[in-house]
Amino acid sequence: MEENTNAAQDINDEKQEEQNEEDYKSKYMYLLAEVDNYKKSKEKELVEYIKYSNERLIIDLLKVLDDFESVLKQDKDEKVQALYKALISVLSHYGLEQMEVLGMDFSSDIAEAVATEESKEEKGKIIEEVQKGYKLNGKIIRYPKVKISV
Asked: How many CB atoms within 10 Å of residue 143?
């Protein structure tokens, strides 16, 4: 009878060890997945950081672009045009793109209305850009200031 009790105890001990082993494996796999998710999250953060690290500098350079455009409206000097094109080229290499909103339906999600004007255009259309808007790698960094038709 004592042998049966010992055998039953041994079987219970083996089952308990197997259960503990399964628990440890399960916890190990869970922790591996957590570490993998953490690595992926940090890599994504790093990519986003690098992608937008120049944002402040580029926003400041937009003022220079505006000045170039003002000069070009008054004087079509070829040297100034060449410098403007070179600056645009460098900034576009880093992900800057001008927003094209002229003729579109006005939406506060894509532009900032600064004036309205009666026009033969359909009501609510963007009829003039007062200040250009720009995106950096798909993110709007400056909304265009526009005039809309009424």
From this structure: 16
